[in-house]
From TrEMBL:
SUPFAM superfamilies: LmbE-like. Keywords: Zinc. GO terms for biological process: glycoside metabolic process. InterPro entries: GlcNAc_PI_deacetylase-related, LmbE-like_dom_sf. It comes from Amycolatopsis camponoti. The keyword Transferase does not apply. This is GlcNAc-PI de-N-acetylase. Gene3D superfamilies: LmbE-like. GO terms for molecular function: hydrolase activity, acting on carbon-nitrogen (but not peptide) bonds, in linear amides.
Length: 227
């Protein structure tokens, strides 16, 4: 069986989640004519400002990364980084539900419940609620993996583990655009062997690719799909 994606909504907690988790896939689907909307729930560097580094608004970086990947529509909300646990479930759920109602995606990609980041887990839950079966347009919900969030979550003994059951084949050009989009976030790209280095991004794509005997891929866990 095969589902063709027409309208994709990517839901992330932080600007860069979309690129780290699914940048190659987004670039590929954009090339194939899929209409893509990005919803990011937070728009500051709260954890960094707590360290005295000053609050940095990420709007420009998010928009530049989105343009690089071929995302047509960007919605950035103003919840606080690392503070989504202070927002009511009702408010968070309604925010993502409104995005779904406005854009009417058939597919949602979002963060994983398995991530050590509480923001990621809460956003994943809200996206699942917004994409639940019923009157809405959503036929499929998938989660993506983010280095030093998903893999650290597993290692920290969280009760859930990211178990990929869906792979997207990628070409070299898609990984190049993923790395270019990450550069929009400035300091987010670290030197090798950091997991969020250019080589680290490539290493994961090669590993996920080799799992399906192809050069490059991104892996996802399908939460639900309706045929
Ligand atoms: Zn994040």
């Amino acid at each position: 069986m095969h589902r063709k994606i027409s309208k994709l909504l990517v839901v992330g907690a932080h600007g860069d989640d979309e690129t780290l988790g699914a940048g190659g896939t987004i670039a590929r689907l954009a090339d194939e004519g899929v209409t893509i909307s990005l919803c990011i729930l937070t728009n500051d560097d709260g954890s960094r400002s707590a360290n005295g580094a000053g609050v940095v608004n990420r709007t420009a970086a998010i928009e530049l990364a989105a343009k690089t990947l071929g995302i047509e529509r960007v919605r950035i909300h103003e919840f606080g980084d690392n503070r989504l646990d202070t927002v009511s479930h009702l408010e968070l759920n309604r925010t993502v539900e409104n995005e779904v109602r406005d854009f009417e995606p058939d597919t949602i990609l979002t963060t994983s419940m398995c991530d050590l980041s509480t923001d990621h887990a809460l956003v994943s839950r809200a996206a699942r609620v917004a994409g639940r079966p019923g009157k809405g347009s959503v036929q499929e919900v998938r989660t993506f993996e983010i280095r030093s969030a998903t893999d650290v979550g597993e290692a920290s003994g969280l009760p859930v583990t990211f178990r990929p059951n869906c792979w997207q084949r990628l070409e070299e050009t898609h990984i190049e655009r993923k790395v270019e989009a990450l550069r929009a976030y400035g300091k987010e790209l670290e030197p090798w062997p950091h997991p969020r280095s250019e080589r680290g991004v490539r290493a994961l794509a090669e590993y996920r690719g080799s799992q399906i005997s192809t050069e490059l891929a991104e892996a996802f866990e399908i939460v639900r799909v309706v045929y």
